[in-house]
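Ticket #4471: complex job returned nothing on first submit. Input attached below:
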Amino acid sequence: MSEYYWSILNGALLTVAVSLAALAVSIVLGLLGAVAKLSGNKPLVVLATVYTTIIRGIPELVLMLLVFYGGSIGINHLLDISGSGVTLNIEPFSAGVLTLGFIYGAYMTETFRGAILSIPRGQFEAAAAFGMGPLQSFVRITLPQLVRYALPGFTNNWLVLIKATALISLIGLQEMTYLAKQASAATRSPFAFFLFTAGLFLLYTWASLHVLQRLNSRYSLGAKRGDL
Amino acid sequence: MDWEVIFRPESLAMYGEGIVTTLWLLSSSLVVGGVLALLFALALTGPWKWLQRIVGAYTFVIRGTPLLIQVYLIYYGLGQLEWIQARWDVVWPWTHFKDPAFCALLAFSLNTAGYTAEMLAGAIRETNAGEIESAQAFGMSRVSVMRRIVLPSAMRRTLPAYSNEVVMMLHSTSLASAVPGLLDVTAAASRIYSDFYLPFEAYLAAAAIYLCATFCLIGIFKLTERHFLAHLAPRRH
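Support reply: We reran it on our side without changes. The output follows.
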């Protein structure tokens, strides 16, 4: 019995790994998307808008199945056409990370866009007056404040992303949900295993909430707040 | 790409059945979850501390764990308990726990109730203090203040957040495909995929269906908001 609990605990490491990897992908995509949406360049704006609209209109599970089952066939088809004899297989880990990263990149785009819009325009003008280029002003002026304004929305997205990693078990990644299902099939006592897994997820979401709240108060240091 | 398979009458019928199941799951879980959410929100904002704690713990657990685990807990987990096993052949409400549709519906309803209750409770707490004071000055009791003043306005103010929740719920119904014996849109796509080995076409068609349903829901909520939140809209000159 207890070795099953150990294997689920081991699977928790994979859950953490997959969620952090997907988070990294989504932050990169979110920053690119937000900058594209605010760039004022027509094709970029259209591209980013289509991306966020379509991704947020389709269930995560369907996109995941599409990428996992459709993606490998599509890639091999393309490789076939290009004449190379190589065959590629998408494994569940990368399919899960890419899909979740791609989906939450769309949500992050909206969060980051709103955060950038909250930064007073005068600051960019001041940065330009100091002779900073676009990149320098982005790194020195936008990014540090973006963290502060984006943290509440970011926290929400992160909590939803953590919970979405359970879906990757459906395409065969052996993270804790998958292992709990296997354990419950083998021992015919599903209740205990699923409850244990639910507890681990709760611990993970609770701990990240705690960390992000501390980060939030760190980044809001010195921010003026009106007293009501 | 081979779209002919998707547009064959049998495939279309499968998707049609899937759409019916998905919409049925969505609407029933929203109704059941909505009623529960109202009760939970009243408990969260009510005068009894112990009730607040219990419901608060409930929403914390529901919102902190994946819906898939909740579905598994109800569908696979509850059947393990002897207390339920002793009853699910004969005693009425427990007989339903053998039915996958009921289990999925129960999980979805409990889930959406947790999220909606917190939204509604937030709106109730944010109600303008002046409105409540004047209602009390009119001599209304606690119950009538709630029924006549607080709830109508709080429910309206919850609408924008609730529209997000409904779209999320539409997407969550795709988890019904993880329960054997339920044919929703995603399960229909999976079946067509496994019958014809056409994953791209099968899941793209499902994605298109969900996309259309999402846009319809957003449109409906825009119209509803225009009607119920007209008093909060920016002034038109």
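The CA atoms of residues 1 and 200 of chain B lie 8 Å apart. Closing as resolved unless it happens again.
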